[in-house]
């Protein structure tokens, strides 16, 4: 209600929460950027859509992520993330600072190096090919339900050593966490979130205990074996939850937005079809064009000089990755989807600095595998109905994308 009132008197930051803006947020990002490197909202926080500013803030030694669990309101409030529950965003890598962040990240970082991820290429390609082979021909299907959700879920389940996979249950967990990324809006949503967090805590607590007695080569065993004896069990549960949910929710959104971008730009799709080795460039340009995570909450531990001015400590800062990725000061003709763009890789979709996305190499591998499988098998892939977008300013993705396909050959 406060945000709506502020939007009514012209507050651009409050406009982020309006559903009609979320259908196409990029003109709003442009408006915010035109106001300068920093936009000060009447709601008490700062907003930036500048690539240089976002990059500098993410790398600043006094940047803090703990605003995510603070008292600023909305998605950052303790009412949204009740303290009695472990929350994968607030209580693990995404919401904590060094030295705890460094300590926990060090435990699992070896599993996400480029070399470690490259060893998963064969199994990742196999999963993508199997799911695409099961898609129907000449009849509508929902890409999200049939491919974009199960593909990354199955990939992360293999990494977690889970042989029995309940894809609908796990996907529902991701949906609930993703839907509350920018705030809990109703009593029903609050209840749903708390029930999900309870179920997740029970699941991962049991899984960690199982791997303590019967370790293997999976992520959970690595967490158990790499943590000191005096490590708080809640830290390990939150770490496992974050790796699991982040391992598929963002990739699900990426698949949908990338397929849409290619279908909406047939000349770019033809370039990709003619040279599938352009897949890495397609991935980077799509991450720039439609970042799965559009925003994040940051802050400063001490007053600091940053590009565009001096900012106070303790004030919430909304960084607009989606806006930074379309900053004309960095990307020529930024609203054009162009897979031949030479600097797409400088996008901010994975963040920067100490909190640079741990799973970036895995996300790239999954993205390339998904695109090669879909467009390699189907000679004709078309939209078969309206796209249903998530109503969120933090997450950019479709929860329904009807397609119809004709197989190659």
Task: Give a description of the structure.
The protein is α+β, with helices and mostly antiparallel strands and 409 residues long. It has one domain: Cytochrome P450 (Cytochrome p450, Orthogonal Bundle), CATH 1.10.630.10. Helix content is 49%, strand content 10%. It has 18 helices and 12 strands. The strands form 4 sheets. The chain has a 5-stranded mixed β-sheet with strand order 1-2-8-5-3. Strand 6 (304-306) and strand 7 (309-311) form a beta hairpin. Helix 8 packs parallel to helix 18 (360-377), helix 10 runs antiparallel to helix 14 (233-264) and helix 11 crosses helix 14 (233-264). 47% of the residues are buried. The model is unreliable at 70-77 (pLDDT under 50).
